[in-house]
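Q: Hi! First time doing this. I have a protein sequence and I read that you can turn it into a structure. Is that right? Here it is:
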Amino acid sequence: MDVYDCMKKVCSAKSYLDKNISNKDVAKILNAAHFAPSSGNIQNWRFVVVRSQDAKEKIARACLEQLWMQEAPVIIVVCSDSSNIKLHYEKNWKKYSRENCAAAVQNLILEAENIGLSSCWIRSFNELRIANMLKIPDSASVEAVITIGYSKHRPIEKKHKIEELVFFEKYGSRTRDISLFPLQKHLKKLIR
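A: Yes, that's right. Below is the predicted 3D structure, encoded as structure tokens:
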């Protein structure tokens, strides 16, 4: 699938079919995450793949009681191993650590979509509960929880118009090159 088409199709699925995901597909998703860029090429991300129904329920409860998460056949908990990144970036290691993991999550989500799966990126959770449950060491932190599965129905997510999100030369500046607008019209020409 074309990467642009893939990005446009991604949505946050919160309802999944009772259908297993092959280990091969999980490996593809994890491999895509592994190819994400990272500051200093540190690759501080670590992934915990959870399939057990009992563990999925506990994770859902630790994610502010979002019990729908249990329907997903796979939950991937994305962690950051901070031991190496702290050495290289004493002041900004937390920021870089989180950014690196976010890049890995984006790749993971795109590959899931590419192979016909749906996902949801959960950021609200009790980190300590998840860390204790999954035996995550003190040197690592939980950065994201991702549900993966076959969506029962694809939600339609409304996107803002790109013109509302783009500024020129400085934040807030709507002064623009008229030939560039409307951006949506030009994007349709450029992107199939």
